[in-house]
Amino acid sequence: MALTKWNMKSFMKGASILTIAAVIVKVLSAVYRVPFQNLVGDKGFYIYQQVYPFIGIFIVWTSSGFAVAVSKMLAESKGPGESRGILRISLAYLLALSVGIFLLLRSGSSFFADLMGDPALAPVLQTGAYIVLVLPFLAVLKGVFQSEGQMIPVAISNVSEQLFRVVIVLAGTWIALRAGSSLYKVGEITMWAAVAGEAVGVLILTRFFLQRERMAIATVKPWRVIKDLTKISIGVSASSLILLVFQLVDSFTIYNALVEAGVMSETAMEMKGVYDRGQPLAQMGILLASTLALALVPLIAHHASKRDGKGALPFISLTFRTSILFGWAATIGLVLVLPFVNEMLFQTRTGSVALIIFCIQIFWLSIILPLTAILQGSGKVRAPLLLMLLGIAIKLTTTPWMVRRYGIEGAAASGAIAFAIVAVLLIIYFKRFWKFPLAPRRFYAVLLIAGVAMTGVLIPWMFTADYWLFAGLSPRISSTLTAVSAVAIGAIIFLFVVLKSRIMKEKEWYLLPFGKRLATAQLWLTKNRR
Question: Which residues neighbour 111 within 8 Å (Cβ) at sequence distance 6 or greater?
């Protein structure tokens, strides 16, 4: 099982395959929550979102962070014997870790449920604990294939496990509700769906792995492997983990704070479920930022090692500008159309103000995700991790007080504030190493103009559509038509201003997914100026 030697071209091809798979997985992860919420309502959504962060954190840490750590260590190993030793120690370490976490979740489920203020969540948490027993095999197998640049098995596994999980969640929920099961029982089904999905991923990768030849085992120092695995995995997955840790903080604070503020238990559950509607909206909003981090950071890491790192500067600037551009567009667009999108997706406009505040996080995450990835690609891991911990501390300390004072709007604001502080501090830290401007002043001016233009057109359009054009239709259909038309109009206006101003060069568009079409449109719009 000798490691395959592969060049930058094959590496970038593999990275592209993984990026496409990651986009599909992220879209599935965000989209399935909409029909699920429609089936179970806000209380059912609350139950799911209360427990999911517990297993979601371990899923991301192992199947993403540990997989990258294993692949990096295998790629740097000094022969097949050492690689086999690393694999053996990695699997043993992850199995011990997963068993420990499994026992903690199973035995401590009542404690955690009581801490969240809802003892009925204990069986759901116990069911979710089983997923951690599957993940060590998934992480190690992904690490093996990624270390050799064989991304197709990993991509197939990633998409299959998510698709299988989504199908079981929706089908199982529908059947359970038809049979009269409780919403907490439905919560258990969603946890079993996650276990089944990860198991499918393991089976797919195992089939590819069994086709490989055996080799001897060399002596490897266990503690060095364990130390490197832990350090690399946490650093790599930190930016993704912060989203789930924020959700975990919400699980322990929002419901309890609402009850302490005098809200009835059932109402507090529904309010938390309404607040959780923001999660899929934010996931879709940061899709481009997280995709850019996956697609362009390998280029940055490759060029950072050349010419004192100066070769990476164009890619760093491009990653930042593109992420900010589309993050700003997604934030402004969602803030404007949120009440209609809320009713279109989730049946009511309840909680629209809280969700508007929640969606402001998209802009700050569009700064945090690419900058964190750039710093990681350049070998700077510790400082971003410390800033993430600072953000978590701010979220944890401010959420209870803000919820008691302002309700779920306060919870949304606490998250936005925490992310804003992390983003600003990341930029300051980044500037210590790269003195050049990430974007010219004209870039920010154009984005501001594009946002104002989009706002100036969409507000009167939505008012006209909602109160006159689609007024005779049912509320949800009216909101759907208003939202879809507003998104289309807003996108056209925003892109027109951006493309007409040429703040991105045509050759830069070509480096991005579907950028060729934008480059062609920009050439056509600016042909008289060239």
Answer: none
Q: Token pair of 32, please?
A: 């399935």
Query: What is the distance between the alpha carbons of residues 186 and 168, in angstroms, rounded to a whole number?
Result: 11
In eight-state DSSP terms, residue 213 is P
Q: Which residue, 435, 329, 330, 426, is CA-closest to 387?
A: 426
Q: Residue 280 has which token pair? A: 């899929």
Each residue of 224-278: pLDDT tens digit?
778 877 777 777 777 778 888 999 999 999 999 999 999 999 999 999 999 999 9
Q: How far apart are CA 512 and CA 506, in angstroms?
A: 11
Q: What does the alpha-carbon distance between residue 254 and residue 407 come to, in Å, rounded to a whole number? A: 8
Q: Is 86 helix (H, G, I), strand (E, B) or coil?
A: helix
In contact, 147 and 76? CB cutoff 8 Å: no
Considering only CA atoms, which of 247, 255, 250, 254 is closest in space to residue 118? Answer: 255
Residue appearing with tokens 């997923």 = 131
- CA atoms of 527 and 517, how far apart (whole Å): 15
Q: Is residue 206 a contact partner of residue 140, using CB atoms and an 8 Å limit?
A: no
391 near 447, Cβ under 8 Å?
no
- Residue whose pair of structure tokens reads 């089904």 in the numeric block: 189
Q: Which residues contact 431 (CB under 8 A, 6 or more apart)?
A: none
For 276, the 3-state DSSP assignment is coil
Distance CA 337, CA 459 (A): 9
The residue among 6, 30, 361 whose CA lies nearest residue 148 is 6
User: What does the chain come to in residues?
Assistant: 530
What tens digit of pLDDT does each residue of 430-475 get? 888 877 788 889 999 999 999 999 999 999 999 999 888 888 888 8
As given in the structure block, the two tokens for residue 463 are 């008012």
pTM of the model: 0.86
What's the confidence (pLDDT) of residue 250? 96
Picking from 383, 131, 418, the residue whose alpha carbon sits closest to that of residue 246 is 418
What's residue 383's pLDDT?
Answer: 85
